[in-house]
Amino acid sequence: MKENIIIADCKKEEIETLKDGLSKNGRQYVIKSHPANFGRTGALSELKRYANYFGVTLQYFLHRNRYEEIVCWQQFYALIFGFYSNLFHIKKRNKVVAFNFTYKEKKKFKKLYCWFMGKCLSGPYVDYIHVLSNQYAEIISREFHFPKERIIVTAFGIDDSYEKYCGLDAPAGYTTNGYMLALGRSNRDFDFLIRAWKDIQYPLVIISDTYEGDTNNPNICIKRTISGEMQYPWLVNCKALIIPIDDGRICSGDTVLLSGLSLKKIVLVTEPSTLAEMYIKNGGNGLTVKKDTECLHNIVNDIVDGKYDYIEDNARRSFLDNYSRYSLGAAVADAI
Predict the structure, then answer these.
(1) Cα–Cα distance between 20 and 329 in angstroms, integer?
(2) What's the whole-number mean pLDDT along residues 195-204?
(3) Residue 188 to residue 243: CA distance in whole angstroms
(4) Which of 77, 86, 88 is nearest to 54 (CA)?
(5) What is the DSSP string of 105-144?
(6) Burial of 109 (0-12, 13-18, 19+ CB in 10 A)
């Protein structure tokens, strides 16, 4: 009897509810955990991470006759499986699904990376890719000539950690609801946020280990050494979470946004962006703002004055109803 498996780059318990959602129609799955988070501290850690992707995928490729469905929580496990399949021209035997597909051009080796991604996606080997926006599905379908009917579009989903984190104290030197927070490492336009904060007197904390910019604004504090569990005291105690997106076509920031909703935060997202498209009903469960200095000033002032405090409960409710990891698994199960 062939297995249906989920290959993940995280601990099993992190996607147990996703597995439950995938199993809603009666198909059972086994989680195969291969953690690949090596801290991303530089070129060496990145090389180690990608070597892990190729090595792990090779194990399953060589034993592919044991499996019916190969669902990959880390997209590169599915993509590299497609690459190996095309490279060796094998007979198709498996249904392969890639969760959370994202393609972003590399500054180095741009043409090589594009060719590699095209090779992964060509032919029949990767059956479905899952993306987080209809607009992004159109872009990927055109870019790689990947059939639109094989692209699954859903919102993202995370596990609910409200009870775990809601009681954390504010970080030293800060008070609960006494600052706004911008958090993230990819596709963020922190430069815009810093420029726009010029005449705003309310404290802003930016947490990012990849942002290389700086500021002389005494109301802005940039922190580059906070990651993982250390981020939650900052997130739980902020007045609002701001996510300024650089390229609105690229899917990014979903986990941060959903963490904010789950923790009853007012989430402010720049538009146009896939986050604004897929998650936020402006004035309902969150707020959207154009990347315009005056617009940002006005909405930040309104948040400080308490105009949008009602959103906190709406945010939590929308998360529970729509954006759990079980909901994500169930939606993908229905699609495949």
Answers:
(1) 7
(2) 95
(3) 7
(4) 77
(5) --SSSHHHHHHHHHHHHSTTSS-EEEES-HHHHHHHHHHH
(6) exposed
Q: Which of helix, strand or coil describes residue 171? A: coil
Give the C-alpha distances (Å, rounded to integers) separating 165 from 97, 233, 255, 263. Answer: 32, 8, 16, 8
What's the pLDDT at 329? Answer: 95
Q: Looking at the predicted structure, is the pLDDT value of residue 40 above 60? A: no
Strands in the chain per DSSP E: 3-8, 30-33, 67-72, 95-98, 128-131, 151-153, 180-183, 204-207, 220-223, 240-243, 266-271, 287-290
Cis peptide before 233 (omega within 30 of 0): no
Question: What's the chain's length in residues?
Answer: 336
243: which strand partners? 269
Q: In what order do the strands lie in the sheet with 204-207?
A: 220-223, 204-207, 180-183, 240-243, 266-271, 287-290
Plot region of 89 (φ>0 → left; ψ -120 to 50 → alpha; else → beta): left
- Mean pLDDT over residues 190-214, rounded? 95
Query: Tens digits of per-residue pLDDT, 132-162?
Result: 999 899 999 999 999 999 999 999 999 898 9
pLDDT in tens, 226-251: 988 999 999 999 999 999 999 998 88
DSSP-derived 3-state class of residue 190: helix
Task: Name the residue among 155, 102, 103 with its Cα closest to residue 275.
Answer: 155
pTM listed for this prediction: 0.80
CA separation for the pair 25, 5 (Å, rounded) = 15
- Structure token pair of residue 206: 């930016």
Q: How many CB atoms lie within 10 A of CB 103?
A: 21
* pLDDT band at 173; cut points 50, 70, 90: very high
